[in-house]
Amino acid sequence: MRRFYSMALATSLFGECGGVRQWGRIGTSGQTRTDWYTALPEAEIALQALLRAKRRRGYTS
């Protein structure tokens, strides 16, 4: 089963920072989740932790 996982940082109109994640099977639109944080460094740290966890499970960049 071939899967994909993508992550990006986004900002809202109100200054909040979000970590946008999208995942699913290749060939589908997949699912999307956005986790909101109050500051950009907080969002970056959270996404870096997720990236390390995904790489341990076999995902590549």
UniProtKB/TrEMBL annotation:
Classification of source organism: Bacteria, Pseudomonadati, Pseudomonadota, Alphaproteobacteria, Rhodobacterales
InterPro entries (alphabetical): WGR_dom_sf, WGR_domain, YehF/YfeS-like_WGR
Protein name (database record): WGR domain-containing protein
Pfam family, one: WGR
Residue stretches making up the WGR domain: 1-61
Superkingdom per UniProt: Bacteria
Organism: Rubellimicrobium mesophilum DSM 19309
